[in-house]
## 1
Amino acid sequence: MTTEISQETILSRTSWLKRLTNGLRILYASPATAVGTTIFILFVLMALFGPMLAPYGFNEQIYTDARQPPSPTHWFGTDNLGRDVFSRVVLGARDILRLSGLGTILAVISGTTFGLVSGYWGGLFDEILMRIFDSLLAMPALLLALLLLGTLGPSENSVLVVILIVYTPIVARVVRSVVLSVKTRAFVEAARLQGESLGRILFREILPSVLPALTVEAALRFSYAIFLVASLGFLGVGVQPPNPNWGLMVSEARQNVSQLPWALYFPAGAIAVVVIGVNLMADGLKRILQAGD
Amino acid sequence: MKWNGRCIISESNNTLLSIRSLTIAYQHGNEWLEAVRDFSLDIGHGETVGLVGESGSGKSTVALAIMRYLGQGGRVVAGEVWLNGRNLLALSPTQMRHIWGRQLSMVPQDPLSSLNPSIRVGEQLAEALRHHMGMGQTTAAQRAVELLEMVRVPDPERVARSYPHQISGGMQQRVMIAMALGTEPQMLVLDEPTTNLDVTTQAAVLDLFRELIQRQNTAVLYVTHNLGVVARICNRVTVLYAGEQVEDAPTADLFRQPLHPYSQGLLDSVPQLGQHKSQASLQGISGHIPALGERPSGCVFAPRCTLAVDECYEKRPSWESLPNGRFVRCHRWAEIASGDISTRHPAQASTPPKPQPQSQPPLLTLDNVQVHFGLGRSLADTLARKPPAKVRAVDGISLTMQQGETIGLVGESGSGKTTLARAIIGLEPRTNGQMTFCQIPLPPTLSERTLETLRHLQYVFQNPEEALNPYLTIGETLRRPFITLLGYNRQQADTAVRHLLQQVKLPPHYADRLPHQLSGGEKQRIAIARAFATNPDLLIADEAVSALDVSVQAAILNLLAELQTERQNALLFISHDLAVVGYLADRIAVMYVGKLMELTETAVLLEPPYHPYTEALLSAVPITNPEVSQEHIRLEGDVPSQTNVPSGCPFHPRCPRYLGDICANQTPPWQTTRQGKQIFCHIPVDELQQIQKPVLREHHASEAHNG
Amino acid sequence: MAKYILRRLSFLALTLILTSLLVFAVTQFVPGDVARIVLGREAGEEALEAFREKFGLNDPLPVQYLRWLGNFVTGDWGESISTRSDIYPIVMERLRNSLQLAAITLIISVPLATLLGVIAGLNENRLADNLISVASLSVVGLPEFVTGLILIEVFSRRLNLLPANSSVRQGTPFMDALPMLILPAITATLVLLAYIARLTRAGVVEELKKPYVRTAVLKGLPYRTVIVKHVLRNALLPTITIIAISFGWLISGLIVIENVFNYPGLGRLLVFAIDRRDLPLMQAVTMVTVLGFALANLAADLLYAYLNPRIRLD
């Protein structure tokens, strides 16, 4: 008897695994999302194994090879300091994906916490928190980011804090709206009538219903975070040289764009490709997860 | 000779709409699955035909196919739809534009979403008149007002200038009717047009349909799941099950002698007004409607049919034409017609718990319970110190309930019945009044109540789709009450879950399933099982069967009665359906806008005197028994909003027996009749006794259904 | 309706107060001593103290906040730390430039985007829709500095049609400045275009599925009437809100675009201020932008409420 029911945990896990493989299968069913997912996976691999792929260091200056167009030795050419553009683009993947990924994860965690608590409790706490978030959202994202960076000064940690503060309210609102619609559902009320604890109600009864919307939102936030990190790099207020941030590379290459266009186009292209890829994937996720099972 | 005449007429020019072997498929992934198979029907001028089926039967699909509006996922695979000698399925969309509105109109189920939210009602009526009837701006606008008057909309000029959201649901449906009939089509398709309306409003709208259809000699296809509605309005009925037409007969014949086992089951699933569980339990139909891809190859009903023989599983029955104008699709119809076999068993009564006498200490008492709440106030309103708009959902209810008793609480939408239930259960804190449970004061909110109280006071929710967490297995859902409320360990809880599943007649392996793998009826069984897990003294069931198909509903009602017999618990059963309440309850409480109107033993419910509201309710309930006729009492207007409860007796603005100022100004007294009914009314009970006739009367069959 | 306007206005006031608090608070967290940052390392203790006294830095924070807010409301925005000049006239001039660019962008993008969105929505999953959807999805993914640089490369370097540098001088007549505005405006348009078109499409697709469309079709009305009179009336109403939301994108986009083209707007001024850690200038630019954004949103909300009978008649 116990064996029979303890199978259930395994069963529900296999059903999650099944869901994952099903999800991947559906992601690959539509050509657009298949391209997006593939791009995303390639860039993640690039971030993970970048140092093994890159022939040179990100700040390794080969004076003899400066200002070279793309060639078999330097696939993407070199910049005016003699740095290999291909190596910098490859190594930059880790930098930008780490910053935007970590920032997104932080924002998702804090946004989920705020959204769950605020949505379930309601009342004054909810009211105050939402007004604060409203005022954060009353500032265009980049403006808020610049204001914060102007205060904190340019550094990687500042960029993380910026992503956290800019995206927490957005994630919190998404989570909160799902919580608001779920908490009055009969199954949550039934749990209350069965004397369940608050923790169980929040995390076992409500959270699973939030996950689909949260996954989609996280994917979207991630793509905007990449965008933001690159834009801040371009404006010169985010991470500082010689970091191989693609936005920063574009900004540095602008001065010599007529002589060394490759130094600009390859990092710019990398940004475009990864953002479009993640966007396509988020679009697909949205269709799968929010169309119902 | 009579049937012969009928046949000649229907074969002649009188046929307006003729559907021939219509087969419709829906796309599921890469497959096309047949939703409706081989559907044939003739409708003559001025004839009203009911198309009856449960959810998933394909009845709305047929309606949309006739309208040529199936949408992208649907396709007519075969068949023809002839209207006035033209096959609609062969017409181009441009040609259809001359037919739509002019010859063929439709009234849909949900009037609010079917009206354009940002165009005034008058203009929505007038545009079709200008387009089809060649009217000018002013003529069309005037005619729109006349049409509103025709469908008995009070103050038609004002309504014509209104936007849809400004008028009530009943008014919106009248607007849809005016819109459909305004262009004087010959054929009208009605798709569940009264399903979302309250029963008193429904009765008035049905009267209106009957009158207008007769006046304009319109042919009607009336699509519904409600047999009572069919009985009231249709000349003939076609029964659809799982995409297959199973029976077609004149209405009275079908109700008197259904020939298909499914028709029989459907009729027996619905409790009649006055039928009580102690006399006979409901027959019902076991199992559930097969999903689109899982329909059996033989007779589609065979898996649920108690009369099925081998042939039924192997061979699809043909559409037999019977000499008296009837059709049936069953291998064994002749045996059924001769009375040799029947799905109907001799009545089997359940033995419900005997409620303890009133002298015993009560289980639950409510003393002047009120639930008032402010409408959502914004911060700005609070800052401006605006008094909140007050909703008087429950407005002073007193009631006692004995151990083992079943009380049925009946009321239309906005009566506050659900709020009262939620106040008792603790989900909606009362704002005033006292409650005791087992002679102990019951605190208003859930958090103040002990686990012991929760254990003895349980609830079954209305909608089984929402009652179970979609992400938890059935086993986990059912295990929780044993662990949290009874302190079982995991192993004990698992044993208990298996036992519980058995009691609600589900196999033990269901513990491993997720809710989406269950049918609606099975989900409601789980929800009931969860509520019974802790062996509560009082179970509150709020519209526990209203989201279910009728054939499934019967089984759930029986299950509730059975479990109650076994556990001897008290039951507060809440429903808008007087017949269902009457079937289960020992006593019935009638609620209207937050107040009790009448409290009566079920046995004397049908005997006058009644509260005038109860009288109107009894008269409005659609009944399926052709041997019974109903008194004709119709209420004006709609149930008032809870934010604006009428003074004095809340029923006075609609009361057909309105006395005068006393009703509008003074709270009525509680009076007791000879049978022990309690009535909240100014009219003395003796006077009521004199002026009221029994609402339901049995009479000779020949008088019935000649309209 | 009056109640709605009142509620909306009180909401606006609250948001602005909270935002100003935030702007003020953020600048309090600047590491180090403001006087020291401004006066440099060589400044003596006396000079520092005099500076603090002069700018009220020794007062308690609430007092500083109220004084700062009061000054802001009365137009006394103080002196820029880096340029030692009055902030108000600089910001106003830059604001004018930014508004000019924003206006041109909106005039091009809103009608075009709405049109594309409607076309895509009416042709759901057909060729036109797929083309528009894929194109807009790709443009959404491109950061403004990438699109801007591509446009410069094509129209300025290759074709030599338009200037790459848009550093308009003060007092340049509009017609002379116009060529310099075109490339930045196109860049901003591309961002908005994709965003607005995608949301408009979604609105049209959603609206087409509503039952009232069926009612209109089954009345036998001509297709054009059904679409124009029934569907678009409802589908285009939310576009007002969409456009309001897109102001946020536009502002973010313009900050980057102004820096790509060296256009003398608020965005460029802000990045300049951050570079120099010029706090009063940062505060002023931020407050002006937030105020503008909030007013634009308010206008959109009121227009929406006015056009929507479900709100207007409540």
## 2
Amino acid sequence: MGVFLSLAENVLREGLIYGIMAMGVFITYKILKFPDLSVDGTFPLGACVAAWAISSKLNPFLACLMAIAAGAIAGCVTGLLHVKLRISDLLSGILVMTAMWSVNLIITGGSAIKQFFNMPTIFNSFPQGAASSAASTGLRLTVILAITLGVKLILDWYLSTKNGLLLRACGDNSSYVTSLGIDPGVMKIAGLAIGNACTSLSGCVLAQMNENADINSGKGMVVMALASVIIGSALFKRLSFLKFTTMAVLGAIIYKACLMIALQLGLPNSFLKLLMAALLTIAIVSEKIGKRGVENE
Amino acid sequence: MSDALIELQNIDLTYNPGTVNESCLFTNFNFKASKGEFVSIVGSNGSGKTSMLNLICGGLSAQSGKILLEGKDISKVPEFKRAKRIGRVFQNPALGTSPELSIMENLSLADNKGKHYGLGRGVDSSSRERMREMVRTLHMGLEDKMDLKAGSLSGGQRQALALLIATMTPLDLLILDEHTASLDPNSSETVMELTDKLVSEKELTAIMITHNLRYAVEYGNRIMMMHEGRAVLDMDGPEKEACRVEDLLDIFNEISIECGN
């Protein structure tokens, strides 16, 4: 029972952290219909920014804000490449993802893994937590839950503002946005900035929990985020009271649970990425089959 | 016709210049519409009707020539900036609204056109009733379904909504690009009547492309027929009043015979 609880806690914790990224990817993929591959680079970007800031003795919460800003800038670059230089959406993402590898190495000072053990992080910067080096399980989960919930509420609020409505309109009918006198390109760039800011924050929180930043941690993030988004929206789309942000986070938790179950059933670690790709394939195909039933295409 | 609201001067337009598919549409094309005119444009496919509207709206730019809106050259102004003064309804009803947003959200966005799209509430509770009243004038019963997604409406309903949206804020010019063509006869009639009502109520200047010769004859105060990048017929005033569908058909057939069709 104890093992089960600790596994469940693990799934919930990681699901919530990756859920932040899933919410960001929901904005780019589901709202803007932009398959953004730069996520593979901006996830470790957040981790590296966290490692750099915390090693430089900066406040760990400031580190989060810096990660958000860094992710937003990277997202803007993807957007500018696509909108201003007219590079295809996939290629713009690949360019930024590739460039991020160097940027991340520069931030960590050339090392692929940067550790910052026993430094103040968002998980131990509270009065009672500062004393013990290993923060209690409950506190850790509470901090993650608070951050994920905070991001969710901010995104929910933003998408109900005038600017947010415009962003939503931009994805499904950009000529409508044009006819309202607004450049849809600007909205696309804004959406990519938000999406990558969330992704970077997600990487930053994970790094602070692990007390190290791994520049390889971005591998497969696009696949993971897309699968979370598609699973979440497919499973919960009938529950109209659920906001899409909630669906994305729930999707991430379910996805993490699937991976965890497979590993517990004895799947070797090397098969993990293969399983991730297979899960996304299943999610996309079943989404298509579901649609066919409705639209009869 | 002294004060032209919109004017196309000496337009040259060639598609795919420098390739084997090069095709010249306009050479030294001129067009003028004055304030208060409701111009119906008819003509066969490929005659340059839609290209002309795209030139005005900015989706297409000519190799040479000027486009003047109230005397100011707008040929270098990007499409989204021109849209602040030029409203447009497309042939495809899906293009006039955002399908994922509700009727209310669509209208609120349109109501804010020309202003800053900031972080204020997307749907103002104070303007809810005003929006409902506006939708009530459509007589489609949509005022009770304001939270329905626009994508779930029928083509006729969406086109009526698109018209309402395009004309919500003050406009210089309304562009109607075969906006009844994809609707069934009944909806088409409703949308056309609504168009006429909105144009006369708001005293709009409008340019409408239509393949329905009856609409061209019954509505508006000027008819233009285009063929191979030229205006082969341009009538207004009493001459337009006297024009019948049969007259237009005769001219249509004459042109077709000339072309050997």
## 3
Amino acid sequence: MERKEWPLWEVFVRSKNGLDHKHCGSVHAPDARLALQVARDVYTRRQEGVSIWVVRASDIVASDPDAKPELFDPAEDKIYRHPTFYTLPDEVNHM
Amino acid sequence: MYTQALDIPQPKGEPKGPRVVENADYQAEFDAKIDAGGFIEAKDWMPEAYRKTLVRQISQHAHSEIVGMLPEGNWITRAPSLKRKAILLAKVQDEGGHGLYLYAAAETLGVSRDELYEALLDGRAKYSSIFNYPTLTWADIGVIGWLVDGAAIMNQIPLCKCSYGPYSRAMVRICKEESFHQRQGYDLLLQMMKGTPEQREMVQDAVNRWWWPSIMMFGPHDKDSQHSETSMRWGIKRISNDDLRQKFVDATVKQAEVLGITLPDPDLKWNEARGHYDFGAIDWEEFWSTVNGHGQCNVDRIAARRKAWEEGAWVREAALEHARKQAAREKVAA
């Protein structure tokens, strides 16, 4: 069997206005228009969304999992970036 | 629906994919992550055997969903009312959707959907044995929802916590939808049981035919299940085949009573000491013969899938060609 595969698209759905589009899976489709149509049938059969984005999987640039330590560990010891780092007098601690 | 302890050995032709380079440091990191109950994501390093097990299990699960559309699809045009037809259409569409979520999850492991699907069409890949039984009457549609989807839910809930992120997320989505499948089936049967004696008989007959195949869906006994131990170690499987089967039997007895039918097992009785129902011996010869291609409908099921695939080929190609031309035209215009 010769394979002529439809390209892969990543699907992002906004579940309701006010929320982010969130990745929910992928679909195969020959072009963007059909990718949207297929994504609608596959991922929103029960009113899961009000808006869909599809992006060609090959167009997504992702960080390298091996680079996780140098990318994300530096934030670990910067606890002063969080409000809880600061202890204030009880009278004003709800600040 | 429908994993069946779905990691049935697949002797010929494992789906391919990139080979993972074994590495002791990575292995230690992987083990620690699994032991801490963490998730493995698509691009993370994983042992080759873990990846292969997942490809096999997720693709067998996907194939089961896709083949599972056939026995029920058989009744869409003959549903007894518009309401039941709309429900059945929605359910069969869900099965197709579940197959697609799962193929998408499998593809994150470096195999393509078409490659996996080819393995199904040329008989290399397995799918759940349950779909090789025929749907003879309308009552079968109710019983499939109640028992087959019921068994599937038992199997699938623990998979929502599977260590592989994309599979686990697909299963969360699937489990949310399964409950509708089971309830609509039971509801259909309740309605038939309020009907004529012939209708009640039809329900009992369907239960008689589907009961044993349903409890076979949990797969071989733990002592005979060759993949279970490593799958448990890897957090791919969380509860053993026998424990799940027992849970299913215990839950179903009461439902059968309320429905007013008899489960076809003379050995089925409450065991006070164990705190569970005892049940009779399973015909494993029938199970393996069905898994290995000699069930009542194996040939028809694959023939139907092949026909759909082959007759749809020109559509898939034309759509690709249209997209190519459109893109070329836009390039010229720009």
## 4
Amino acid sequence: MKRRETDESKVLLVTDHGDPGFAVTIRLWANAHTGATHAHTTRGHACAAPTPKPVQVVIAIGGDPSTLDPQYADDGNERAVNDNIYEMLLFRDPKTMAVVPGLAESYKQVDATTWRLTLRKGVKFHNGEALNAAAVVFSVKRILDPAFKSQQLSYVEGITDAKAVDDYTVDIITSGPLPILPVRLTWLKIVPPKYAAEKAAEFPNYPVGTGPYKFVEWKKGDHVTLEANQAYWGGAPKINRVIIRPIPEEATRLAALKAGEVDLVRGLIPEYVKDVPKAAHRPGLEFPWIRINTRKGKLADLKVRQALNYAVDKEALAKSLYGGFAVPADGQLLTKGHFGYNPEVKAFPYDLTKAKALLKEAGAVGMSVDLIGESGRWLKDKELIEAVAGQLTEAGLKVNVKIVEWKTWLDLLFAGAEKAPDLQFSSHDNELLDASRTLSGLFTSKGNQAAYANPEVDKLVETAATETDPAKREEMYRKAVKIINEEAACIFLLNLENIYGLSKRLEWMPRLDGRVLVKEMTVSQ
Amino acid sequence: MTNYLIRRLLWSVLVVVGVSLVVFFVTHAIGDPVRIMLPLEASQEEYLTMRHAWGFDDPLYVQFWRFAVKAARGDFGDSLWQRTPALALVIDRLPASFLLSFVAIALAILSSIPLGILASLRLRSLLDRLCVMGSLLGVCIPVFWLGIMLIMFFAVDLGWFYTSGYGTWKHLVLPAVTLAALPMGRITQIVRSSMLDELHRQYMTTARAKGLAEGYIIVRHALKNAAIPIVTLAAWELTRMLAGYTIIVEKVFAWPGFGLLAMQAIERHDLPLIQADVFVVALIVVVLNIVIDFVYAALDPRVRFE
């Protein structure tokens, strides 16, 4: 059942902030079929036509959405609901992850800081408002307004304004050249201007979008109900009704699936895969990693950092802790699906002898290092930290593991390079699928999480951010990725998979970007 | 008695205000929640801007004044995440928690009183031993584990009830039983031991000598005299539930009560929501305590309000 899919297409990862440990990603189908993709398409087609009676699907998520305002919170539970109600100007193709038209039919760059989008005509919000340039302008201004206090600003960084050219043409203005703009527009959800402005107090609780599903009710803490938007511009979805239920306890989520109360469970833990009616999994975007304070004492020595990487047996961790639903990271914190992934860079092999020799050469045998970690935020984080500490100890270091409370962990992460602990465990997921988010934040001297600095990397990342030729831009990121790997700037650990549990009747190929889009599902009777 | 009530109420106000103050300072001492709200990738500038927009960069006394002025009018501000008045969010969840707690305590009392009495009457019988063992089990079993086991057996295997959620009695049974297990165990023990104390008192012999029916004597005389510790314990169990002990049960059964809301609020450092939650809990506890005092008075004529 756990046959590994060789599908190349890659995936996004969603972190459920309200629900520690339920960061999820995806891989392919599981149980019954082997030719997964094909089995899915043929079956989906066969059952589409002869089911005239209403079809309802129940989806279990890890926690209650914090809000149903699509532009406010950074919350995976909110997205699980709103991805079905709201839409963006650009989408990502479910299989290839390529940026494709969404509410905008086309886009082009008109000058260094202006992008012109042509909107799809005849699209209406669920309340009848028209989707037009004014709606886009309103949505952009709304999320950028400091008084609105959106938690999603880092996803739309670089966008400064929007202007209507005519009813269906809109210009997006950026602070400088921003080649990543189309990617940012796959994130930004468009809201109905009249309703959002006039009923601002109700808006977070009664969402109105352009998407395939209309909001029906939200009983907080218990469920959100959606129903099919028969007038959806992309064609009415096959499933008529969707109930999304927060079930915070993972064992209960599994039980609900087994009892037939829910059809889809997000964030299944590896141990449960054998118990579910059907499972779907795919390589994800979640990369547990350990930051090294590269300026501190012996850790400034490349040999020591290399030793740390050689000392960790990634394969063993993936197997023993994650039941094989993880792979060693390819010596970078990016998947093949990320723009900027370097196919030449490989994981440090596990080589204890080499690690010991390197430590000896550096005169660091028996060196004492602090390893800061947290618990419960990510899947098996504490277990992973302890296992890695054990392996480092075996290589000849004295590792002091300190598991701290989340707030303390955050304070240490952002303490700046001088005060950064020797080693700090973290987990990175770059949902924008563009290397810039990973590299600039984690490995440049300006990066808020960085404890590593290298002028060459700085320059590459900075230049790439405004480089409009995609090929050149990609080359720069690849180069930076290579340097970071050669410098062993961190301990590269694993790349986790997203696992879903499905009911027998639900037919769905999990999307590569972790979005749970009910319009892509079908139900067989 | 009116004097007593007024005094109690004044004290209660002090307690609620005091608790609110402590919570305000403790939560603010931990630090601002802005980092928790933003994704890890958010830049330092974004963090500082956000911190300023929320006013978390103001001196603590300024923040406190802002809080105090609004709180005095019963306004705890909007939840940082939900952007809806925090107090309303808590109140919205009360019915679910109340329903669960009251049903659980009723289950516990209605089952443990007869069991405890029977056990005390048939001392060292099989029934007595079973009761003692059962009540120990109820006290010892981890709530979490019990909940999951009940779900697996009664919801998944037998399909009698729902695994989780809210709405019908089929949703209510399992969480209520899970929540009732511990108080049931404790109350059975106290009923048994209090009854044992009373059964050998002289007034029992007198009552029997008067020729009264045994059942009547046990209920009207022994049980009534044994009632004070039982009521004390039951009230304490109920208070504990309403003060947040339901949280584990709510989590296991995805029961939309305020325990779950509080947990979420704490995880997200949603300060106004934590504040509103603590306020409501403090209020409930204080009111419940006053009510219990009156129940004592009704049960025991020696209790006087002074």
